[in-house]
UniProtKB/TrEMBL annotation:
Domain Radical SAM core: 79-316
PROSITE patterns: RADICAL_SAM
Name of the protein in question: PA0069 family radical SAM protein
Region span, Disordered: 20-40
Length: 374
């Protein structure tokens, strides 16, 4: 009988926090939950450990891994999500938001949800072609679609690759309704496409604004646009006639939670017409990564933050149940929700998504397998 593989406990935070890396949210390439091997450093007598230690102090560069996707439209199976389809042009995200619920998806690639998630970005270079094929299928039924649910479609690498741009071109051509949630000002590049779509009720954009504090933003989401820049993007979109909302998500107790009302006020002043908010979630490897981040940046309140999170999650670090995972439960979750509702009502913001316009969809011509000779 073969011995069972040694699994690395991904649910436990590091006992001794390591130094932060400038421009990165995570400080380590922590092993993922499927890891079956443990690695131990051994000195080979040639000073290799000293060399590795020196190399670890170098900021990790971003690597782009090109992928030919077999499928690009994902169908939502969750009963507590308001959209039916999602399209993710990338896997991983260079923004490096420490709280990102999508970090554990890198585990399926045998990569770390820590540094790998924000430094090894998989680019689905044929995404637009796959989308066109899907929309052309007679079996396809247009429904609500969100662009960038497990990644930011406008992360820095998009400026060079333009994968999201080509996807939006297909959606504009076919008049397929969609929404996008982003922390980037890069969405302004698409105004030539989305402004006409907005006139037909086909598009809405949500800017994620988690803090107005530049110093907090630098460590919380190190490579995303600065808070003031995101507010300017809200203004630019609103002035162009694009329905724009604000996502104050996640709300982290004692970190950005005190800013909730001020963020909503700033977004409304910039032109946001709607808002939503979700308490912080800590699924799988996000939990130890987040707790390590707390110990590195807020050791004085780390225990208090986690205690309040557990108060809203039934005594646990995370609650994955449908119906409560996006709201939390208990008195603190109810108070947080009451603050949000009071603020949006005062500011005249909607907290419900706009109805989706499906009647204008025009199915594209199905790509020919052989192509034309003339």
């Amino acid at each position: 009988m073969s011995p069972s593989p040694t699994r690395i406990a991904a649910a436990q935070p590091a006992l001794v926090p390591v130094d932060s890396i400038k421009g990165r949210g995570s400080a380590t390439a922590m092993p993922h939950r499927f890891e079956q091997r443990q690695r131990e450093q051994v000195d080979d007598g040639w000073g290799s450990l000293d060399q590795e230690a020196a190399e670890e102090h170098l900021p990790p560069a971003t690597q782009v891994i090109e992928e030919l996707a077999k499928k690009i439209v994902t169908t939502n199976q969750s009963p507590d999500i308001s959209f039916d389809y999602s399209v993710n042009p990338y896997r991983g995200c260079e923004h490096g938001c420490i709280y990102c619920f999508a970090r554990p998806t890198h585990s399926y690639l045998n990569l770390s949800p820590g540094l790998d998630f924000e430094t090894r970005i998989v680019a689905k270079v044929n995404a637009a072609e796959r989308l066109r094929e899907t929309l052309a299928s007679p079996r396809y039924e247009p429904r609500s679609l969100v662009l960038g649910t497990a990644t930011d479609a406008y992360q820095p690498v998009e400026r060079r690759l333009g994968i999201t741009r080509r996807i939006v071109e297909v959606l504009a051509e076919t008049r397929h309704p969609f929404s996008v949630v982003t922390k980037s000002s890069g969405v302004e590049r698409e105004l030539d496409l989305i402004a006409p779509m907005a006139e037909q009720g086909l598009v809405s954009v949500y800017l994620s604004v988690t803090t107005l504090d530049n110093e907090l933003a630098r460590i919380l989401e190190p490579r995303a646009a600065a808070p003031a820049r995101r507010l300017r993007t809200i203004k630019a979109l609103a002035e162009a006639g694009v329905p724009v909302g604000v996502s104050v998500s996640p709300v982290i107790p004692f970190i950005n939670e005190p800013e909730l009302e001020r963020i909503l006020e700033a977004a409304a002043a910039a032109g946001a017409s709607s808002a939503f908010s979700i308490p912080v979630r800590l699924p799988w490897e996000v939990n130890p990564l987040f707790q390590d981040w707390l110990q590195r940046h807020f050791p004085d309140r780390a225990d208090r933050v986690m205690a309040r999170i557990r108060d809203m999650r039934g005594g646990n670090d995370n609650d994955p149940r449908f119906g409560t995972r996006f709201t939390g439960e208990g008195v603190w979750a109810e108070l947080l929700q009451a603050r949000f509702v009071r603020a949006v009502n005062k500011l005249g913001l909607r907290d419900k998504r706009r109805p989706v316009q499906l009647a204008l969809f025009q199915r594209p011509v199905r790509p020919s397998a052989q192509g034309s000779l003339f």
